[in-house]
Design brief:
Shape: globular
Mean pLDDT: 90
CATH topology of the largest domain: TIM Barrel
Strand content: 5-15%
Strand order of the largest sheet: 1-2-3-4-5-6-7
Number of strands: 7
Radius of gyration: 22 Å
Length: about 325
Amino acid sequence: MRKKLTKTTLEELKRAYAGERRLKKVPRNSDFLAAVGATARERKELRTRPVRSISGVSVIAIMTKPAPCPGTCIYCPSSAIAPKSYTGYEPAARRARDNNFDSFKQVTARLRQLREIGHEPSKCELVVMGGTFNSLPRAYQESFLKKAFEAFNGKKSKTLAQALEKNEGAPYRAIGVTFETRPDWCSRKHVERMLSYGATRVELGVQCLDNAVYEKIKRGHSVEDVASATRECKNAFLKVGYHYMPGLVEGEARDVRVFAKVFNDERFRPDMLKLYPVLVMPGTELYEWWKKGEFKPYDEKQAARVIARMKKIVPRYCRIMRVERDIPTNLIAAG
């Protein structure tokens, strides 16, 4: 009788195989997947990083080319090798650089990586990273997205609209598309354009909800802009995510009170949140403030304490998607 393949028996077989052949290391699951034609059940057992598709949807994150942003925020890093607000050394930025920021190559590479570790990414969510997508030239936006969908479809298209239509029956379907943008670059015309690109979710760089703080950090938009952008997205039946930055508001108690406005005020109430405590990055204006003693970011304990209090305010319907950015620690001066 054939022995049932489980995670435990698989590890035993791998160690025995390596021992018999005197291999220097135990083969990875992905090595076996690349070498043998596994059944659907065996592929499940060989699969690594199951969280990548545990919901049934595989996230494919791609990044636009290095470009400036309409904003002049004092905390935002700049880099010649990544879009504004990225350092170029985040995992997604590294993958984009490896593929010369070509959307076709980025999608193709990510699909291949997922298949190699045992996933079958037939249902995907395309996440377009790179800051204020709507501020990029429209011709670039459409070309970038068309090439991404051509990678999903496995065939060329004359237009973006044609690529989107073909994707409805493609082997790798993008059942969701997410864009990042600023609230002042999310008017009705911007929302309508994103809808034509297949958008299902928009992530807004909100950071805080205090006009005095916005002015101090040179954010370049108002609280009303956040309310307007949120309204336009929700009226178009788009999911709304907020990027929020604990530590911009002075004083822990006040920081939490200002955050409470996100849900106490019916003009806001996002579906999702990403909490990014303020980081002091070399080369920014905030870095100069920090060196002069004019700004002090939260330390690890303070950030954990404030975020814990903020999480108590978040209603059950709102998903906290991420806490902290994935910037390498050696690039961070403080925070």
